[in-house]
Amino acid sequence: MTFPYGLLLLPTAPEPPDQNTLSVCLRPTLEHGLRTLSTASKAITDSPSSSPILDVALQCPGFDSIVDTGFLPTALFHRVEKLLFGVYTLVSSIQRELSTRSSLADSIKVRIALFVNDNQFGGTQNRAFLPTPVIPLPMIARARRPWSHVFSIHSEQGEKLYQEFLWHAFGEGRVGPRWDFVRIGGGLYMRVPPQVKDYIADLEFSNSHEHSGHHLVVSGLSGPDSDILFKVCLTMMAFLLDVNPPDGESMKLLIALYGSDYRQKDTTRCREKAVEFLSAIADFTPAAKQTISDRASGEANKSILFNGQHRCEVWCVSVPILEHVEETISDSTALVIPSKLRQVSTIGSEVDIFEIEPYNEGSQ
Q1: What pLDDT does 255 receive?
Q2: Alpha-carbon distance 290 to 305, whole Å?
Q3: Of 105, 131, 159, 241, which has the fewest Cβ atoms less than 10 A away?
Q4: From which domain of life does this come (predicted)?
Q5: Whole-angstrom Cα distance, residue 60 to residue 116?
Q6: pLDDT tens-digit series, residues 290-311
Q7: How many whole angstroms from its chain centre is CA 137?
Q8: Is 195 helix (H, G, I), strand (E, B) or coil?
């Protein structure tokens, strides 16, 4: 590893995920981690592969209240969506501020990996029912990625989480980790019970085998929020993937790039970017267990492995006009689409549509 690679362990998800709550709870922690990695990068700025990375392990909200582990409440889907948008937006704001003092701050790749503890989700026997982007803490710890820095919160909750992480990573007779460990002070962790009243129809995410694929439509518009929108849409699309597909079939994710200016190289780059991001947040297979055949065949650029066992194919196509979207999704049962595109689309009701609403920093 030739560049700083950090892991930030966050014990609780602040609720509600509005601007003020997230800023009070997470800004000091995120700012410290980003500043540390930016400073550590200065000594190796001549290296072409020196982009720092920060994995943010954020406890996924809501799973401790689910009794029927075969179903995912729609309200929880949107609750997680808003949390991701809020945290990514806060990270972007901090990076812009830090970049005025360090040109390396805005080059840090930040990926949010959602996790649950076994006791939060009823033990190891229920892991098979987790949505694909939600990872048990032991899997993250045992992946033992080459982190150079690990950050934890200087609190009772933060210390408990870090000790659990160490135990899962190294066991009782562990040899000391090879990373710089920092306990970060500041910040406030509050947990306000969410006021969720309308639990619409539940999403059955583990027992349905009727579909052959899922599809994601992303806007081709550029701008400061385009990267955030891409990350959130991909994560939430992964929530809908069938974790137990029929025998002989793999999960499928199709990214439809809307716009008339896209070329083959754009779809290829988008596919690679999607695979890289999804692998970072959902594939915590230890490097030693990754198959040689996958690496040799280039499979790593075409598919990902969720939870270390569920293979998902990733495809990307360009869609010049929205009328073509209906043809593209003809074999799908679920579509994730940014709200701006949904407002001007003519997609019918044959497919379950989940709109992603960009985060409003001024919301309370």
Answers
A1: 83
A2: 10
A3: 159
A4: Eukaryota
A5: 6
A6: 543 343 344 455 777 776 667 7
A7: 14
A8: coil
Asked if omega into 16 is within 30° of 0 (cis), the reply is yes
305: CB partners within 8 A, 6+ apart:
279, 283, 285, 311, 312
Angle at the Cα of 341 from the Cα atoms of 132 and 88, rounded to 5 degrees: 50
Round to whole Å and give the CA distance between 277 and 314: 12
Q: How many whole angstroms from its chain centre is CA 42?
A: 27
Buried b (16+ CB within 10 A) or exposed e, 203-228: bebbeeeebebbbbbbbbeeeebeeb
Retrieve residue 106's tokens: 């805005």
Alpha helices per DSSP H over the chain:
19-41, 74-99, 137-143, 156-170, 226-240, 264-282, 292-297, 325-328, 339-344
- DSSP states along 63-110: GGG-S-TTEE-HHHHHHHHHHHHHHHHHHHHHHHHHHTT-TTGGG-EE
Residue entry with tokens 């029929």: 246
pTM of the model: 0.83
- Beta strands 180-184; 303-306: pairing state: unpaired
Q: What is the DSSP string of 271-322?
A: HHHHHHHHHHHH----GGGS-HHHHHHTGGGTEEEETTTEEEEEEEEEESSG
List, for residues 130-183, the tens digit of each pLDDT value: 778 888 899 999 888 889 999 998 888 888 999 999 888 887 655 566 778 888
Judge whether 52 and 109 are in contact, CB under 8 Å: yes
Helix (H) or strand (E) holding 262: none
Residue with tokens 């409440």: 73
- Identify the H or E element spanning 115: strand 109-116
What Rg, from alpha-carbon coordinates, does the chain have? 20
For the ranges 46-50, 111-115, 235-239, the lowest mean pLDDT is seen at 46-50
Q: Give me the helices (H) in 171-225, please.
A: none
